[in-house]
Amino acid sequence: MSTSVILASAFVLSFVALLVFIWSQRHGLFSRDSSGANVIFGADEIGRAEEPAVTSTAAHALQQQVNQVSGKMAAPASVSDLRARAAADESSTPVVFFMFCAAFAWLLVATAAGLLASYKLHEPDFLTQYAWLTFGRVRTVHLNAVAYGWAPMAGLGIAMFVLPRLLGRPLLGGGFAILGAALWNAALISGLASIAVGINDGLEWLEIPWQIDVLFVTGGLLVAVPLVLTLAKRKVEHLYVSVWYMACALFWFPVMFVVANVPELHRGVEQATMNWWFGHNVLGLFYTPLALAAVYYFLPKVIGRPVQSYNLSLIGFWGLAFFYGQVGGHHLIGGPVPAWLITLSIVQSMMMVLPVIAFTVNQYQTLDGYLSALRYSPTLRFIGLGGLMYTASSLQGSFEALRSVNAVTHFTHYTVGHSHLGLYAFVTLVFFGAMYFIVPRVTRREWPYPRLIAAHFWLSSTGVAIYVIALCVGGWLQGEAMLDASKPFMDSVAVTLPYLKARTVGGALMGLGHLVFATHFACMIFNLGPRRVGATLLGDAPAGAP
Amino acid sequence: MKSESRLLIGAMAMLAFAASALVVIPYVQVANVEPTPGMKPYTSTELRGREHYISNGCLYCHSQQPRAASMAPDAKRGWGRASVAGDYAFDTPHLLGTMRTGPDLLNIGARQPSVQWHLGHLYQPRAYVPGSVMPSYPYLFVIKDQAEPGDVVVQLPEGNAPAGKVVVATPEAQELVSYLLSLDRTHPVREQER
Predict the structure, then answer these.
(1) Closest Cα in chain B, distance from residue A493 (Å)
(2) What is the DSSP track for A120-188?
(3) Which residues, including other chains, have CB under 8 Å from residue B24's CB and lie 6 or more apart?
(4) Is B142 helix (H, G, I), strand (E, B) or coil?
(5) How many Cβ atoms are within 10 Å of A474's Cβ, its own excluded?
(6) Which of A112, A211, A110, A121 is nearest to A151 (CA)?
(7) Are B3 and A311 in contact (CB under 8 A)?
(8) Integer CA distances (angstroms), A476 to A396, A422, A483, A526, B63, in order
(9) Do B101 and A124 touch (CB under 8 A)?
(10) Which residues of B65-100 are buried (b: 16+ CB within 10 A; e: fewer)?
(11) How do residues A126-161 score in pLDDT, each as one tens digit?
(12) Which residues in chain A touch residue B22, judged by CB atoms under 8 angstroms apart?
């Protein structure tokens, strides 16, 4: 039997197994019953918008919009539901606040390092005297500050906030998570310092020395304690789709991280396949599910309308879980690794189109008619754009894995453009949106300057658009030049220069947006700016409700 | 979904499936592959140089995996034949790389065997390759008024050394270059690996 036949049959088998598996997970897969989607709402709450990120006037306008689309007036909130939600929010406040403060700090560190690396790539004689500021190190500090600082701190903070709401009870064991997050941040500080002084394990995404990784694992386990405790004592019967994503992300990540960091185990080419199994899965099975969980919760919550097709979200989830894990090999196309592995990864990369389409259709149907609400809700604006970029980056990634496309884009800045479409335009924008929703609940204050939110949105979205377009175009031209044997290699360098400069401009805009965001957050916690006592915090509750 | 244990068991099964495809089977297949005939293990100096290659982040711009002629003209650029698993038998951690902001380096020792060229190029890449975006590494060198006995003085093209001074390579720079010179995978591969 030829390899292709073996592959094709293995593939058909696994696909059928996946379908059977999804079937076994839920009876009535094809029923049109979507009651599961309603669990994020209290009694009679469907149709009521929740958007703590805006002033009470704007919240009122948002509610008007929602009423107009649904054609009915929202029922008044039930006091017991609001009490339960307030208790849930209060229970997670300390841990969420701690994680968000860390997230802000890492966002700024990562931005500074990234911007410096970007500038150095077209000005190679800038600041070369110091070893710790050489391109190879600041670039790596940037990646690790995003990968282990900003993204997990923001993502886990959001998860800690959403879980008690979804499980219908206050968070249990939040103190463990605070201790865990403190250890995690201590680990990251030492990890970044060790990269800066030049001690590093030498694998992309896994540079931090394994001795420090022990601290990450300990911290990560402590962060998972409240998840397990709260899950075990939950008051709801049905687990909402966001819980699947968050719970699995919290279980997948430690397993991958430990397997990838076992010292003296991985060798030679096998180490390379392991490297990309981890490197790609940390995106797909950690950040992506955390961000998708936020989309699935906040998007319906803000517009007061349940997710349109709950079954599609089931397919989206198990499709991601099944296909994504195997796509990492496409980072080694053309490399010295077994051919079957590359083919498997290419096939599964294409199969990722399925869950992505399922997600996209679902979100589109849910938002259908509610687009005008985007004007009133910053949460919705960030999360809506972020969700759209999930579709864009996933489709781009699927096609990038095809041999013909990969022959051009592999080894070029195109890959960097793609990764920022995924980790910034999708994950980071979604996290921004969720944070705009959550921070007012945590600090019990309103965002003081709505205009700063708008400025942040436009700076970040314009910046990342310039960034991604510049690198995709520049990277493609770089790849074409490299494939043309008649051109000297230096042509492939020269062609990228204007695009690398454009990337610095885009990155600077994004950085400016982050400064605006961080300043706004600082204003809020230090109580600067106009004082408003918000009735918006939990929607238009009857007097006397918390 | 009503049962968290079913959810988590399913999720971990999915991850295990992926790990067996991308980690376990490759481990069985290639982790203990025989080195390509003619290859020698790195010397301790070369290994120290390899550490500098890692700590200064060379791998983020230079791959070490020439591709086959069917895919890219790597061989025509002088980067060498398509590499095979045996070429990496002594490589821990692997340094295959994912970017070619600069050229592939798996055979740089065979392509450019001059120690002086490499030292000077590390000190100021643009003195040798106009338009290069590689950082210069002044911190791997010491500027002296006069060379002392035992110093390795870098012979730079006219006008690149500070006036009236000499540029001396640190041990780190020399070790890094000895690693670069060890990168030579021009040995023919075994038949079954083609």
Answers:
(1) 7
(2) HHH-TTTT-S-GGGSHHHHHHHHHHHIIIIIHHHHHHHHHHHHHHHHHTSPPS-HHHHHHHHHHHHHHH
(3) none
(4) strand
(5) 24
(6) A110
(7) no
(8) 13, 18, 11, 47, 18
(9) no
(10) bbbeeebbebbebebbbbbbbbbbbbbebbbbbbbb
(11) 999 999 999 999 999 999 999 999 999 999 999 999
(12) 273-274, 276-277, 325-326, 328-329, 341, 345
Torsion-angle region of residue A122: left (phi > 0), alpha (psi -120 to 50) or beta? alpha
- Quick check: helix, strand or coil at residue A364? helix
Nearest to A326, CA basis, from B31, B98, B23, B99: B23
A494 Cβ under 8 Å from any chain B Cβ: yes
Identify whether the C-beta of residue B103 lies closer than 8 Å to the C-beta of residue B74.
no
Burial degree of A259 (CB within 10 A; 0-12, 13-18, 19+): middle
Report percent pLDDT > 70 for chain A. Answer: 92
Please give the biggest Cα pair distance in chain B. 79
Q: How is residue A163 written in tokens?
A: 């879980």
Residue-wise pLDDT tens digits, A468-526: 999 999 999 999 999 999 999 999 999 999 999 999 999 999 999 999 999 999 999 99
Contact A9, A347 (CB under 8 A): no
CB A474 within 8 A of CB A413: yes
Say if CB A390 and CB A314 are below 8 A apart: no
Can you read off the two tokens belonging to residue B10? 């399913």
Q: If you search the block for the tokens 């797909």, which residue do you land on?
A: A284
Task: Chain A: give the shortest CA distance to residue B149, in Å.
Answer: 26
Residues 6+ apart with CB under 8 A from A435: A100, A103, A154, A157, A158
Count CB neighbours of A444 within 10 A. Answer: 13
Strand, coil or helix: B98: coil
Q: Which of the residues B22, B47, B70, B172 would you substitute to probe the A interface, choosing the one with the greatest number of A C-beta atoms within 10 Å?
A: B22
**Number of cross-chain residue pairs from A and B with Cβ atoms under 8 Å apart:** 244
- Cβ neighbours, 10 Å, residue B163: 5
With beta carbons less than 8 A apart as the criterion, state whether A281 and A330 touch.
Answer: no
Peptide bond into B93 cis (omega under 30): yes
Average pLDDT, chain A: 90
Lookup result for tokens 């591709």: B67
**A493 at the B interface (CB within 8 A)?**
yes
Give, to the nearest 10 degrees, the angle between helix A429-443 and helix A79-122: 130
Alpha carbons A75 and A45: distance in angstroms, whole number:
7
Q: What is the pTM of this model?
A: 0.94
A297-342 pLDDT tens trace: 999 999 999 998 888 888 889 889 989 988 999 999 999 998 888 9
ipTM associated with this complex: 0.95
pLDDT digits 0-9 by tens, B157-184 = 988 989 999 999 999 999 999 999 999 9
